[in-house]
Give the backbone structure.
Amino acid sequence: MYVAVKGGEAAIDNAHRLLADRRRGNREVADLGLDQIMEQLSLAVDRVMSEGALYDRELAALAIKQARGDLIEAIFLARAYRTTLPRFGYTQPVDTGRMQVERRISACFKDLPGGQLLGPTFDYTHRLLDPALAGDAAPETPEVREPDTAPMMRVSDFLGQEGLLEPAPDAADKPVPDDIARNPMSYPMDRDARLQALARGDEGFLLSMGYSTQRGYARSHPFAGEIRIGEVELEIAVPELEFAAPLGRIQVTECQMVNQFQGSAKAPPQFTRGYGLVFGQAERKAMAMALVDRALRATELGEDLTAPAQDEEFVIAHSDNVQATGFVEHLKLPHYVDFQSELNLVRRMRAEAEVRDETRQEAAE
Amino acid sequence: MSITEPDQQSRRDRMAVLARAEGRQLRELWSGLGIDPAFEMVRGPETGLATVRGRISGDGAPFNFGDVTVTRASVRLQDGAIGHAYRLGRDQGAARLCAVIDALSRDAATAATIASQVVEPLRETLAARDRQRQAETAATKVDFFTLVRGED
């Protein structure tokens, strides 16, 4: 028999009212402005944009404020908002080669054209808490220097020239990529669909998976061929214009991982590659994405499948933190009827076991 | 009537500046112009999503990697000139204004006024920001030097 129960409306209303109060906190402390979040917690904004798969700094800041700084909750809010908007189409693929670079480093070549540009990095900081930041100490204005105007060649371009690096997959082979936002995922996936899933994947999960490959579970001897952060132009082809409409710029982080070589009887050995591309300034995520992308190419490259990071369905199906949190957190919802039936079952099994024990004892006597 | 090649180039170039312009400066420069044409909305302004594409390894086959908010608007002036605008973000007033500017620029004389009093100042602001950022980034360039080797 199915029994519907109702209740808790007043409790839920009051809980949400309490949540709003606790989110605001002490009223004597100034309310947090979205501009403050965008300007001073910009990497949190970037994370919400990347895993929310929605580039809009102000919306991400609002989500962070509403979620009380719980970034997975904020990502959930961003994803939910996304579903309310119409889709205008697909942009032309961004050209990261023409990026307005704010940071660009290579761990492979010291003297690459354009040089090593550190940009605003946490690298080489001593990770000591700075008590001055507890106050309102104004930082020094940044140093400036005449920029080098020469185009910044990708590291992969000059390794590729010598044939030492595998070429990128040819656009002619698959000009229109899959879209997992519109079509359900099915395994095995093409690399383009996998990259779309990884781009929105949970940073912590991808970091762990990438780390596992470094520790020997599907080792691929990675080098950070190049990491670049900066703004790229977006354009979209629309029927009313004879040229692609310029939309403006977004900031992205790109990681080109160069991995151990491969060769066969037919092809000479060459380096293989993993790729990461993420919204905003998100170097750790881009690097982890590139490591996991490379690990998931195991089948394509004829490698033995020995490690979790090579298992496409395992990695992709568990990389989305909105899906993961939905399923884990749904355990909090009432399961009274389910549990009641389990309870009945375990009671019956115990009663049957008791009867069996008694019968056995009687037989022994 | 089809627009000629150089016209297309200058239109695209203007749209690129207008799309990137900060809403407040755009409105200020527009009010400074003192034009207030009658127009009707043909579409929007409406906010939606564009799915951003990248290329595998930077230059390979395309893949979709996330969405971006976009606002678009199309207007018709009383003389029948149509204008379109696309901008990242959700500023519908700015998108409508950009569409009006696009429509007005179909007229060569007005286009010249708009170019000098709206588009060029906006372009200069954007270029100044780029130059400042490039100079700040350049100051973080690593100058390697080789340590003296102890051979003698």
Remarks:
- The first strand of chain B starts at residue 39 and ends at 55.
- Residues 5-137 of chain B form one domain.
